[in-house]
Amino acid sequence: MGYTDADRRAAREIIGRYPYAKSALLPLLHLAQDRDGWVTPEAMEEIAAMLDLTPALVLGVCSFYSMLKREPVGRMVLSVCTNLSCMVNGGMDLHAQLSARYAGDADVLVEEVECIAHCDRAPAFQVNYDFHGPADADAVVDLIERYQDGQLPLRTLSGTAAHEVR
Length: 166
Prior knowledge:
This protein is of the alpha+beta class. Helices cover 43% and strands 11% of the residues.
């Protein structure tokens, strides 16, 4: 999907915040991801053109940052920390159980991540970059259901609060 006039206005406003247009690259990628649910090849090309960059450079940035999704992932990204503190407190088992539970659910992506700096709440996890923990698999499933039912406000895939999305 191409940028709309409203998207272009938002992009110009974001670019205007920086002394160098290239500095707006990450915020523009998040804008595209929040709009489409992932960073599409078309969005990468449009962003490259807006910032006078090559599409290859934009793709390079997208492939470097794991929070930028280059394929559709559904509405929720469930990131389970398996770094040392979380690992010794059941993070690996939590990841395995949740991966099995949501394997066929196109709406929920379960991913293993390195330290999310929430070690005091191990095993820690995030739902669209909203921190949670500690919890067992049953508690996480209950939490996901609360997000799905709208009982809890779901952040965008970029972690932006829903009321902040342009």
